[in-house]
Structures are given as C-alpha cells and as structure tokens.
Design goal:
The protein has a 5-stranded parallel β-sheet. Strands 5-6-7 form a 3-stranded antiparallel β-sheet, with no helix packed on it. It has a two-stranded antiparallel sheet with strand order 4-8. The chain contains 24 helices and 12 strands. The termini are far apart. It is of the alpha/beta class. The relative contact order is 0.09. It folds into 3 domains: about 280 residues, HUPs (Rossmann fold), CATH 3.40.50.620; about 55 residues; about 80 residues, Arc Repressor Mutant, subunit A.
Length: about 525
C-alpha cells in the first residue's frame, strides 16, 4: 500500500484533480452522501475514441478519489439522444434513412443498421458495449428517457420561471439576427416529430406552457414530459442541476459553452461543478476527429490491433495536449505500455504513482516480464511468415527455450494483435527496395561476418559487427544511412528493430537466409 503522504503530494493529474475536487466541494459531498461525475456523449454518429477517453480519464479521477475518501462515487455517462439529427454522417450505411429523417430526435429515427429500434439506440448500445469491454463502472442515462419520464420536469419548470434571467446571459453571446429568434426551449412538432428551432410568442409559466410561431401558425406546447427539450448550453446547465453533478470533463472547444452553462446553473441555484478541459483528438492530417466524418482510428480497430490497457495509457498521457489518433500511433503506444510495466517494479513509491501504468491498472499493474517490444514482434511476424499464434509461439520457443506461455498472458495476446496489425496495416505499406550492385557487395560482406558468429553471442556483440561492416564499407560518416539501407531492403521500411537484438532472437542462420533472399 502506498503511503498517504506520497498520495497527498504527487503531481499525477488524476490526484491533482481529485484533491481539488475534495477541497472545493467536500461539504456538498458529505451532505448528499456521494460524488457524482459525468461524461457527455452525442450519438449523432458512431461513438469514437474521444468518447471513450472521457470515461477512461474520469475513471482515473475516481480511482484517485478512492485513495483519498470513502465517500461513494458515481460516473454518469449521459447520451444527448433527444437531439435532432442535423446532418448525415459520412460513415453510415443506408444513409437514405437518415436523410429522410433529418431534424428528428435520434431515438425516433429508424436504425440504418437494422439492429435496434432507432439510430440513437444503436449508437448508445455500441458505446455501452465498448465501455463494458473496458470494465468501466458507470451509470448510463438517456436524455430521451429522462425527458419523457418526467425526471427533468421540476428542472424544466425552474428554467421557465428563470427565463428572463437566463436570456440576459445567453442573448449577448448571439448575433443580432439570432437574438430575434432564439428560444432556450425547442418544441417537438406533434405533426412531424422534428425538433423545431422557432421563436416564442408567449410564456404561460403557471401552466408550464409556451406558444411558438411555427411559420405563421401558433403552436402551443406544454414543456414537460418530453414535449420540448432545451437548447444545448441551457440543457447542459439543467442537466448539471437535475443530476447534481460535481465534476465533468470536456474538450477545449467547449470551454466557452461551459462558462455560459455555469452562469445558467448559478441562476438555477447551484454551485458550478468542477471542470477539466482536455485537448482535442486529431486524425493523421491534423484535423479534429468527428463522429460524422468517421476519421481517425476507431475503437474497434484499436482493440483489434492492441490491448484496451494500451489505449487507456494513450488517454492518460498529457490530456491537455492535442493527440493524433491514427493507425500508426498504435505500435508506439503498445511499446510505451510494455516499457512502463518493466520500469514499475523497481521504482520508488512516489515514481510509481507518477507512472501512468499505476493509473491504467488502478494501482495494481501486472508484473509480467516483457519478452520483446511490439515493434520487433511485428518484424518477426513479417520475416517469419507466421500467420497464427501457435506458429509464432513455436518460433519464439525455438530461441527462448525456457519460456512458459502461461507466465506471459500479455505477450500471448500481443502475438494476436501483431498478426492483425501486420496484415491489415504494415503489409499494405511495405515497399521493399532492390539493392544496387554496391549494396549487394556490402550485404554479402555482412553475411560472411554473420557466418562467423556464434548463436550464443549476445545482441550487443552482433550490433557491433553490423556497425563495423557499415563503417568499413563507405558508411563511416553516416551510419544511419547504413541501417536505413538494411531496413528498406530487408523489412520494406525506413525504420526497423534494433538489429543486434532482432538477429539474436530471429536466429543468425535465419537472418543470413533472409538477406540472401533479398539480394537475389
């Protein structure tokens, strides 16, 4: 058990946020008997990694809180599934179904995948499936259900009674034309089922009714029981009020919205929840990841190529710095995960809490000895032409005779991930270069040197031999070019594994055969 004095002074960001939360809201927690943390999600498109990140990071704050207080904690994952669909996502089949239902709440639109009752329910179930796979402890809440069940009725009535004060906050942030038509309430049209953005004519507070101008026709709506919903910023504040939220993370693009929503919440009569603004996720081109575009790596792909824990690690690191999320980031994330596991065992307590692995595994990281980096395993998959876990294990055991599969569950899963990633990502990008005459000569010299090597030589001795061949044959001023030449010819890439270690593991005779094949 880590000493509490160390926990109190660590700079690991989940503990910094947890201590701040306890300091600013302790009396509120003690009064209601629990701490409520919320994550928000809009199911207007398939859930992406950014949604997962909010739940993962919030869970890390809860883990830190567990070391600081015994007060119960609850994570609410809230779906804005009563929102009207504004545009058709690019990555959805049968998109005509969505085009025909633009403007309707997501839980009213038929499921284009034909699996659930609605498009909103389909995306909600996908999200819950992902979160369950990561074993997150959360409470899912649907906007549609809370509006229609009457859960929000008291809060909606309060918003209506505070209408003038709320409008005084919202209107100065809008353009002049928008100010003329803005209403915090959006009625659901009884004829078309669409969420309408139309101007208000009259408010009847004592009856919780509003009269709207629907293209020249009067539309009288009772705002309770799901007949109307709130505009986004007021809705966010109302949700904080109704659910009594203490903490919520959000992307930095929502900072201005959060400021406005907090002002509305104050009018409703509650203290602002603590916030944490994180940087956005970008695709390979540096563009913001979007549910409607489907750009960037998906959660399904990451879980096909790497472990859930490696994804959690990627989310832990530098949350206030923009992150690129595309296929090529996966091997590096996995290797960082493996490296941090190896370092953890010998670290002192203060450094253990700063080690992201502690937060990824809720203070109980694995102790497995790492056999090799993921990047090297990918090269092993390619050079050995192994397409199954069984074959690769046989290959590994051939050179590491004392390995017991049962003692290496992480590596066992890693082999499966490596096969998937190599076949679906690496293989497609391989560009093997034919060696020219001079390169063939130098590679033959390397072969002759390797023939004189003993299979029991350690990796550094083999690495030294490769250095020497390069230095003595025209690469003395640029050894990087020498290794790049080997990588491009042997591995089909500009970069590759540390060759001494790779050859030691792959086998000297096997490496000689491999080079000979590439020369031919």
């Amino acid at each position: 058990m880590i000493d509490k004095s160390i926990i109190e002074k660590t700079t690991a960001w989940p503990f910094v946020e947890a201590r701040k939360l306890l300091k600013e809201r302790k009396s509120l927690f003690e009064k209601k008997g629990k701490i409520i943390l919320q994550t928000g999600y809009g199911p207007s498109g398939l859930p992406h990694i950014g949604t997962f990140a909010e739940v993962a990071r919030t869970s890390m704050v809860v883990n830190a809180l567990n070391y600081l207080t015994d007060i119960p904690k609850e994570i609410i994952t809230f779906s804005d599934d009563m929102d009207g669909l504004r545009k058709v996502p690019d990555n959805i089949p049968n998109s005509e179904v969505l085009k025909d239902n633009l403007g309707k709440p997501l839980t009213v639109i038929p499921d284009p995948f034909k699996k659930f009752k609605s498009f909103g329910e389909h995306n909600n179930e996908m999200l819950k499936s992902f979160l369950n796979e990561f074993k997150f402890n959360y409470l899912f809440k649907s906007s549609t259900k809370l509006y229609k069940s009457g859960f929000f009725n008291e809060s909606l009535s309060l918003v209506l009674n505070k209408y003038e004060e709320i409008m005084n906050i919202i209107l100065p942030t809008l353009g002049k034309e928008r100010q003329k038509t803005y209403s915090p309430f959006l009625p659901i049209c009884p004829d078309t089922n669409k969420v309408l953005e139309i101007p208000m004519i009259e408010i009847i507070k004592e009856k919780n009714q509003i009269v709207f101008d629907n293209n020249g026709k009067k539309l009288e709506i009772n705002i309770l029981n799901g007949n109307a919903k709130l505009q986004w910023k007021v809705d966010w504040a109302m949700r904080w009020y109704a659910l009594d939220v203490d903490f919520e993370m959000y992307g930095k693009d929502l900072i201005e919205s959060a400021i406005l929503s907090k002002k509305v919440l104050n009018i409703l009569g509650k203290k602002n929840p603590n916030g944490f603004a994180y940087e956005l996720f970008l695709d390979a081109k540096g563009e913001k990841i979007s549910k409607s575009k489907g750009n960037g790596i998906t959660i399904e792909d990451w879980l096909k190529y790497a472990s859930p824990e490696s994804l959690s690690l990627y989310m832990y690191q530098n949350p206030q710095r923009a992150k690129k999320l595309y296929h090529e980031v996966v091997p590096k994330a996995v290797d960082e995960y493996l490296d941090l596991i190896e370092k953890f065992e010998n670290q002192e307590d203060l450094k253990k809490i700063l080690n992201p692995i502690w937060h990824v595994h809720n203070g109980k990281p694995p102790t497995e000895k790492i056999i090799m980096p993921f990047s090297m395993l990918l090269n092993l998959v390619g050079t050995s032409n192994s397409s199954s876990k069984e074959l690769l294990w046989k290959f590994v055991k051939k050179y590491k005779k004392n390995i017991n599969e049962k003692q290496h569950p992480i590596f066992d899963k890693l082999i499966g991930y490596a096969i998937n990633y190599f076949n679906e990502v690496v293989k497609l990008n391989k560009k093997f270069r034919k060696p020219n005459k001079e390169e063939k000569v130098i590679l033959n010299i390397l072969i002759e040197k390797l023939k004189m090597c003993d299979e029991k030589m350690n990796p550094e001795e083999i690495q030294t031999i490769i250095y020497s061949v390069g230095k003595e044959n025209g690469y003395s001023k640029n050894l990087r070019e020498w290794f790049k030449t080997i990588y491009e010819i042997i591995f089909g890439d500009e970069n590759g594994p540390r060759l001494g270690f790779f050859i030691s593991f792959f086998g000297i005779q096997e490496t000689i055969k491999l080079i000979e094949e590439k020369i031919k």
